[in-house]
Specification:
By secondary structure, this protein is mainly alpha-helical. It has seven helices and two strands, in the order H-H-H-E-E-H-H-H-H. A two-stranded antiparallel sheet has the order 1-2. The radius of gyration is 24 Å and the shape is elongated.
C-alpha cells in the first residue's frame, strides 16, 4: 500500500492499545458462504463491522445472536463464522464502539456506546447500502430455495406425466388449468 508505516510489532501484531491498527485494516476472510462461495466475497473489509454495529445498535446481542441476525438479514446467502464474528466484536470493543458485559455462561452481551452510535451515524449511507445489498441477496437466495425448487420440479413432473400419459378430456384440461391458476394466485398472495 502507499505510505504504509512499519511498526515494530509487525503487520498483525498488537501490543497494548489499538493505535497501530486501523479500524478497517483487519486482514482475513469475512466469513463463509453456505453455497460454496457462489456469490464471491460477500463483504469488503470493514463492511461486516458496520453491519454488526448496526445490529447491536438495534438490539444488544450475544455473538451467536449476531451470527444468526446477519444470516437472517442475508436470507441465508451468507453466514459469518464464529472465527469472524468474535474478532470483529473484539475490535469494535477495542475501538470503544461497543461494550461487553458478562451475561453468564461464558456469554457476553454487546451494547453500543455513544462513540459507536456517532460512528454509525457518520456511516449512515454505507450502512443503508449494506443492508439493501443483504436484502437483495436474500431475495435472490429465496429463488434458489431447495423447498421451492423441489416443489416447482414436482409440478413440472406431474404435468409432464399427465400430458404424455394420453389424450386429456376437456374436463381434465380445465381441471389442470384451474389447479395451476389457483397455485399462481396463492403464490401471488403470499
Amino acid at each position: 500500500m502507499f505510505g504504509r508505516h512499519h511498526h515494530p510489532e509487525g503487520r498483525m501484531g498488537h501490543h497494548g492499545g489499538h493505535h497501530s491498527r486501523h479500524p478497517f485494516g483487519f486482514h482475513g476472510h469475512e466469513g463463509h458462504h453456505r453455497r460454496g462461495g457462489r456469490m464471491g466475497r460477500f463483504f469488503d473489509h470493514g463492511d461486516l463491522r458496520l453491519v454488526v454495529l448496526k445490529l447491536i445498535a438495534d438490539k444488544p446481542s450475544h455473538g451467536y445472536e449476531l451470527i444468526k441476525a446477519v444470516e437472517t438479514s442475508a436470507g441465508g446467502a451468507y453466514t459469518p463464522s464464529p472465527g469472524v464474528i468474535y474478532p470483529t466484536l473484539t475490535l469494535l470493543e477495542e475501538l470503544g464502539y461497543v461494550t461487553a458485559a458478562d451475561a453468564g455462561g461464558g456469554k457476553k452481551l454487546y451494547t453500543i456506546t455513544d462513540e459507536g452510535q456517532a460512528f454509525l451515524e457518520s456511516n449512515r449511507q454505507p450502512v443503508h447500502g449494506l443492508f439493501a445489498r443483504m436484502a437483495e441477496a436474500a431475495a435472490q437466495s429465496a429463488a434458489f430455495s431447495p423447498q421451492i425448487m423441489r416443489a416447482r420440479e414436482n409440478i413440472k413432473t406431474a404435468l409432464r406425466l399427465k400430458l404424455t400419459a394420453g389424450r386429456l378430456t376437456p374436463e381434465q384440461i380445465a381441471a389442470i388449468a384451474k389447479v395451476l391458476d389457483g397455485a399462481a394466485a396463492a403464490i401471488e398472495g403470499v
